[in-house]
Design brief:
Helix content: 25-40%
CATH architecture of one domain: 2-Layer Sandwich
Strand content: 5-15%
Strand order of the largest sheet: 2-3-1-4
Number of helices: 5
Low-confidence stretches: none
Largest sheet: 4 strands, antiparallel
CATH superfamily of one domain: Transposase IS200-like
Order of helices and strands: EHHHEEHEH
Shape: globular
Mean pLDDT: 84
Radius of gyration: 17 Å
């Protein structure tokens, strides 16, 4: 039985639709990016980040993006966390682990009565509203007159359905993720201990 989910979603420019290691995408919406390869949609359930690939080519493709690849500063990551906290307070979502990294987010959450895709959209929205409220949205300088700020999140998410035996492993993985990137362990007030 599904107890919860491990979800990962990334910031603009982190993982391109034609990343040679695979992607969630079946479409490349920009001719400039398409020149670097067709979409690399995969149904792989394990992370593909460790696969060998041509880093120079991937970085060249990222230079073709409309905006620079987005990375959160520490202040922006804390604003994202405050957005998540507001969402948790409003909805009662159980969050057992959370890692907010410069270019992607990991969450382990309890089962919800909506599609996971909708949950992730709502979490992204809560984080975005908080960034805008605090005046630190990382793409605000690219807002045109009368336009909205460009989205800081890519469409979609990676999700793993967890049964009770999987939750502890997923929590440990998410808690260890910042350490793998040379960052400090994170502790957020909206995260509760998994029993």
């Amino acid at each position: 039985m599904i107890t919860g989910y491990h979800v990962i979603f990334s910031t603009y420019g982190f993982w391109l639709p034609n990343d040679p290691r695979g992607s969630w995408s079946d479409f490349v919406g920009s001719w400039e990016l398409f020149r670097y390869g067709r979409p690399t949609k995969t149904d792989e359930r394990r992370s593909l980040a460790h696969r060998d690939h041509d880093r120079t080519l991937r970085h060249a493709a990222k230079r073709e993006l409309k905006y620079p690849p987005l990375t959160f500063s520490g202040l922006q990551a804390r604003a994202v966390a405050r957005g998540f906290a507001a969402y948790v307070a409003r909805t009662g979502l159980l969050v057992w682990a959370c890692a907010i990294l410069p270019d992607h987010v990991h969450l382990v959450v309890g089962r919800v009565n909506m599609p996971v895709k909708r949950l992730v959209i709502q979490l992204k929205g809560a984080a975005t509203r908080q960034l805008e409220r605090e005046g630190i949205h990382p793409l605000s300088e690219y807002r045109g007159a009368g336009e909205r700020v460009p989205k800081c999140w890519v469409r979609g998410e990676w999700k793993v359905f967890l049964d009770a035996d999987d939750v502890g492993r997923a929590v440990r993985y998410v808690e260890g993720n910042p350490l793998k990137e040379g960052k400090k362990k994170q502790g957020w007030g909206f995260v509760v201990r998994y029993l």
